[in-house]
Amino acid sequence: MRAVAVSAFRAEPALIQLPKPEPEPGGVRVKIEYAALNPSDWQTADGALEGLAPHVFPLVIGVDYAGRVDMIGSGDNRFRVGDQVFGRVTESPVGAGTYCEYVSVPQDSAITLIPCGLSPRTAAALPSAGMAAAQILDTAVLRGHESLLIIGAAGGVGSCLTQLASARDLRVLAVVRGDEQRRMKALGAAVTIDTTARPLEAAVREVSAGGVDALVDLVSGTPEAFAVHAALVRDGGVAVTTRGVAGGAAVPPGVGAIDFRLEPTPVLLDVLAAGAVEGVLQVPIDVELPLEKAPQALDRNRTGGARGKTLFVLRPTRQGKGRARTR
Ligand SMILES: NC(=O)c1ccc[n+]([C@@H]2O[C@H](COP(=O)([O-])OP(=O)(O)OC[C@H]3O[C@@H](n4cnc5c(N)ncnc54)[C@H](OP(=O)(O)O)[C@@H]3O)[C@@H](O)[C@H]2O)c1
């Protein structure tokens, strides 16, 4: 099968041929139709989980997928051949990824049926970004009427978080780079702050003089940069990072700092899929590309600029046909 993989940490991703995996006992093999890009894909290929989890090489990149069950492992199974499914692979081992034609996954991992009314392409875009957004809201114990500052709001997690937060009556201050006011307003943001047009601190203080109730920082890669943003949170508020930089950050003493870590579950996938079917959650898809373009797409994501999700098309379905464009 075709796969996009790296031969070692920090090596160039390349299209290679690998044998199809066999399903494990109690597992299923999925023929992938769409895989979605997440920044964790290139971060993992760069060694972000080195020493923290077992890895296999060549390391097939990617975690999110949608497709059809094409083989069942031995033993009882809750899936059947032909089921349309989507999910996020586990990180054990890292390297049995989804930028490929077939993936073997345990039936009790974050995999579930695609419900009626949800296309495989939308389903593939949902797992990491949608689950992270939903769990961040629970981690920060945000219930409603609070103000939430999101740094990096135009990307995959930020787009989902803006919608889920505003649906809970949170006042979202969406921080972006560029003229994204219309798009962010349509997703539910109360205020959009373009940091290429004005300084962040002045813009936040103008609308939230005493500081915001909560911060979700999706972009700062150092404790120092995170601390600068956490200083915009009021005393007693909470500052969440998805970049693992809360430890050692000089966050104001009255602000709770949280290193968020996603814990994927099939139940959460079902909840998000239902939200997408009902139209409560729009999953913005930025671009669809053939698998061969994955190395270039990963490079582009490193430099920012995401406006929703990038999808790789493994086997176009009717919904996908005609909508794919290349860059
Ligand atoms: N810890 C976890 O379990 C977990 C789970 C999910 C995601 N994450 C991490 O969270 C981060 C965000 O994920 P994602 O899927 O949303 O990524 P994404 O889709 O690539 O979006 C990132 C967004 O941030 C914007 N951005 C970058 N620098 C910015 C700045 N200084 N000010 C405002 N916006 C800025 C980018 O656009 P511009 O470049 O145009 O500004 C882009 O829209 C990634 O690093 C990911 O690995 C961690």
Q: What's the architecture of the largest domain in CATH terms?
A: Alpha-Beta Complex
> What would you report as the Rg, rounded to the nearest angstrom?
20 Å
The total of beta strands comes to 17
CATH topology of the largest domain: Quinone Oxidoreductase, Chain A, domain 1
* Strand coverage percent: 25-35%
Regions with little confidence, pLDDT below 50 for 5+ residues: 317-327
> What overall geometry do the principal axes of the alpha carbons give?
globular
Q: Tell me the domain tally.
A: 2
CATH superfamily of the largest domain: Medium-chain alcohol dehydrogenases, catalytic domain
Helix content: 25-40%
Could you say which structural class the secondary elements and strand pairing correspond to?
alpha/beta
SSE succession:
EEEHEEEEEEHHEHEHEHEHEEHEHE
Catalogue the ligands: NADP nicotinamide-adenine-dinucleotide phosphate
CA distance, first residue to last residue: 24 Å
Number of continuous helical runs: 9
The mean pLDDT is 94
Under the CATH scheme, which class of the largest domain?
Answer: Alpha Beta
For the largest beta-sheet, the strand count, sense and barrel status come to: 7 strands, mixed
